[in-house]
Every structure is written in C-alpha cells, then in structure tokens.
C-alpha cells in the first residue's frame, strides 16, 4: 500500500507559475498508473502562466475562488468544482479570491515536460 503524504512531497514552482507538489507519478513511483496527480497552490491575486498540454487535464478545486480560462471561455470556479481541460487547449487560472487557490491536477496520460507549451 502506498500512502503519499502531502507534506512529504517537495514543493516547487511549476512552468505555469503555480506552486506544485507531485503526489503520484508513474515515472517516480513503481505504480501501474496512466495519470499523474499533483497538488497546486496559487497565491491571492496571482495568475498561472497561459499554457497548453497535449494531454487532458482535470482541476479539482479544494479551496479559494478563481477564474478558469480555457481558450475563449471563462468561468468562476470554487471548492467542489471539477474542470475538464481538453488536450491542446490554451489554459490558465486566476486567483480572484481572498485566500490561496488550492486545487488538485490530474493529467492523463501522466505529465511530461515535452507535452507542455508555456506561452
């Protein structure tokens, strides 16, 4: 059984300027997974760098409020919202709230640097 504790995962600044902790990734653990799972934080007033992935992604909002941008669409997101981000779409998220925006990112197939384009 693998139980991955958030506080045991190294924090780093991702290419899109979100603060990430990678929880599960098939390249880093001996797991039969197609996807990767990360915990993201975006400070108050900050916006992630516009980017696209050649893979699909899902954001699940844990706390805070934000504006999700996918191509020409924008929607307010809040805790309990799941956002599907299709492959090859331009995306970014803005923290429009009064507390850090915290969300889970699931990338399928698992995230690889060569699958991401940052604008």
Extended strand count: 11
Beta-strand content: over 45%
SS-derived structural category: mainly beta
Distance between the termini: 39 Å
**What is the helix/strand order?**
EEEEEEEEEEE
Alpha-carbon Rg, integer? 14 Å
What can be said about the biggest beta sheet? 6 strands, antiparallel
Q: Please state the oligomeric state of the protein chains shown.
A: single chain
Q: How does the overall form come out from the CA principal axes?
A: globular
Helix count, per DSSP?
0
Word description of this protein:
With 119 residues, the chain is mostly beta strands. It has a domain at 47-57 and 65-119. Helices cover 0% and strands 48% of the residues. It contains no helices and eleven strands. It has strands at 11-13, 19-24, 36-42, 51-53, 56-63, 66-70, 73-77, 82-85, 91-95, 101-108, 116-118. The protein has a six-stranded antiparallel sheet, with no helix packed on it. β1 (11-13) and β2 (19-24) form a beta hairpin. The mean pLDDT is 97.
Question: Quick gist of this model?
Answer:
This protein has 119 residues and is mostly beta strands. 0% of the residues lie in helices and 48% in strands. The protein has a domain at 47-57 and 65-119.
List keywords for this structure.
11 strands; three-stranded antiparallel beta sheet; mainly beta; 48% strand; six-stranded antiparallel beta sheet; 119 residues
Topology:
Layout: E1 11-13, E2 19-24, E3 36-42, E4 51-53, E5 56-63, E6 66-70, E7 73-77, E8 82-85, E9 91-95, E10 101-108, E11 116-118
Antiparallel strand pairs: 1-2, 2-3, 3-10, 4-11, 5-8, 5-10, 6-7, 6-9
């Amino acid at each position: 059984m693998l139980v991955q504790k958030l506080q045991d995962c190294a924090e780093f600044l991702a290419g899109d300027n979100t603060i990430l902790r990678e929880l599960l990734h098939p390249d880093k653990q001996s797991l039969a997974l197609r996807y990767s799972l990360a915990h993201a934080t975006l400070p108050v007033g900050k916006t992630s760098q516009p980017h696209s992935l050649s893979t699909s992604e899902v954001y699940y909002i844990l706390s805070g409020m934000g504006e999700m941008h996918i191509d020409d669409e924008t929607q307010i997101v809040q805790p309990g919202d799941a956002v599907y981000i299709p492959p090859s779409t331009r995306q970014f998220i803005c923290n429009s709230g009064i507390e850090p925006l915290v969300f889970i990112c699931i990338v399928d197939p698992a995230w690889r640097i060569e699958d991401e384009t940052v604008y």
